[in-house]
Amino acid sequence: MTKSSNTHPDALTFAPSKKLEAQVEGWADIIHFHFLFEGDIQTPYVCTTHNQQLTPKTFPQNTIFLRKRHAERSGAQAFVYNGLFWDDYGQPNLGKPKNYIHFLANAKYRDKNLKDSVEIARKANKPLHILGSNRLSLKWKRNGKYQPYFYTGKDLSFHGMIGGEEKNAVLRNSQALIFPVLIGFVAQRFHNYMILKVLIIF
Hints:
Order of helices and strands: HEEEHEHEEEEHEEEE
Distance between the termini: 33 Å
Low-confidence stretches: 184-198
Strand content: 15-25%
Structural class: alpha/beta
């Protein structure tokens, strides 16, 4: 199920005016939700939870976690690592000189940490291409999950949500992926954050 911008022939376009259950019931042998589905549906399904900061008291029976520690913190055992189908990304361009680095995430999420990515790129004197995000976001949540932001500067190129060959072209000509993720954990009643700065060179 996807938004209307996806034109893949096998995609089922989501209609906000209709109940989700009515749109997906019987559509597939197994339905894979990437959120904690709480509805009533007869089709077998699994749920992958990507939220590693806020732990609900109960989970749907067939919940999948992202890694062993993620599952253990939630009192569960089943986990599946995220995978990539490398053919979707094409061949890397190892012969052409590269002069920029890139950030690949939806920056409205505070823990994706675009702020430190921009800081690191500027200290390294490298232009930064941001994929999956726009220059301005006013999204906000009281719990801090979403954080509004606005960035200026010709050294920052925002591509928004892109995919396919358009996305691959940016990745192929980038010198490195920068991913300074904020790892959240709860200590007593306080949310503490540890910054893990990761630079993956291509």
